[in-house]
Amino acid sequence: MSHKKYHKPFLVGIIHGLAGSAALMLLILSTINSIFIGIFYILIFGIGSVIGMSVISGLISIPFIYTSKFKRFDFWNKRFRYIAGSIGILFGMFLMIKISFFEGLIF
To answer: What letter would DSSP give residue 71?
Structure first.
């Protein structure tokens, strides 16, 4: 596969990762009085977020990469993908229920 196919998901991941941290960044920025220090903080925060999320994503991807390279691990590769997808869906549902009902979004 060409590496060009991975540019869009990578950029979407970076933007998505930074968007989730925007509230924390804005909270800290509200306490900074200098424009230059605020811009410097945004720059450092952004670089740190990208590096941190890249490292975590790389570590999480190791089992998927390793099991996809060898035919004998096809069974495990499929299971890892199903398990990871299921955990993602269940965690998303957990967050929706928690925020909606237990933290007062709906009631």
So the answer is: G
Alpha-carbon distance 29 to 37, whole Å? 9
Assessment of whether the complete model's pTM goes beyond 0.70: no
Q: Which two tokens stand for residue 75?
A: 């069974």
Give residue for tokens 């991807």.
Answer: 61
Q: What percent of the chain has pLDDT over 90?
A: 24
Residue 72 token pair: 């004998």
Quick one: tokens of 104? 């007062």
Dihedrals phi, psi of 103, to nearest 5 degrees: -110, 10
Indicate the DSSP class of residue 91: H
How many Cβ atoms from other residues are within 10 Å of residue 77's Cβ? 18
